[in-house]
Specification:
Layout lengths: L8 H9 L5 H17 L4 H13 L6 H13 L6 H10 L9 H8 L20 H8 L6 H8 L7 H23 L1
Helix pairs in contact: 1-2, 1-3, 1-8, 2-3, 2-4, 3-4, 7-8
Length: about 180
């Protein structure tokens, strides 16, 4: 199998979304998904959906991974992911070195982004796997597989989210101090 074989999508999805994997492994998986999307247009929507689903977990992802995922979505001109990208920007869970929302929205290919701000969608709880499968049925050649891999991540409680946000804030503060040295 070559590195851009669509048969690897399910394996790459697991590697990308498994938070116990190191950043280089997740980075490599995301890069291979981008290559699959570029070389096999029939699988572009599925690869974009997987990258976007990983970006949905922006509060739990390392900032470096969020930034990388945004860059990959820009590479793929994934206009359909603009709402999620803007949500990450509004939360500040990305490396500011990639630019501001106005610049990124232009790179994504959003027309008139400077005139009209896009409102992020309300958080939609996953009701069950069947409902998730219905939503992904039109993007995946194998909807059952896509639904199982994308929606299987555990949800965080509000207390866990607050703890994670505080931890991220400390990490950003430490990074900022290290840059000044």
């Amino acid at each position: 199998m070559s590195a851009d074989d669509p048969g690897l999508i399910s394996t790459l999805t697991v590697q990308l979304q498994d938070q116990s994997n190191t950043f280089p492994i997740r980075d490599s998986a995301a890069g291979q998904l981008v290559e699959i999307a570029r070389n096999h247009p029939d699988y572009r929507a599925q690869c974009v959906a997987i990258i976007t689903a990983t970006l949905e977990r922006y509060q739990r992802n390392p900032i470096e991974l969020n930034t990388l995922l945004i860059k990959h979505l820009i590479t793929l001109k994934a206009v359909e992911s603009a709402l999620r990208v803007q949500q990450v920007f509004e939360a500040g869970e990305y490396d500011r070195g990639i630019g501001d929302w106005r610049q990124i929205s232009r790179e994504l290919g959003i027309a008139a982004a400077a005139k009209k701000q896009i409102n992020p969608p309300a958080a939609e709880p996953v009701k069950n796997a069947a409902a998730s499968a219905d939503r992904t049925a039109n993007i995946s050649p194998d909807p059952a597989l896509a639904a199982a891999t994308i929606s299987s991540a555990p949800r965080l409680s509000p207390k866990q989210k607050d703890k994670l946000r505080a931890q991220r804030k400390q990490e950003r503060k430490a990074k900022k101090q290290n840059r000044r040295c």
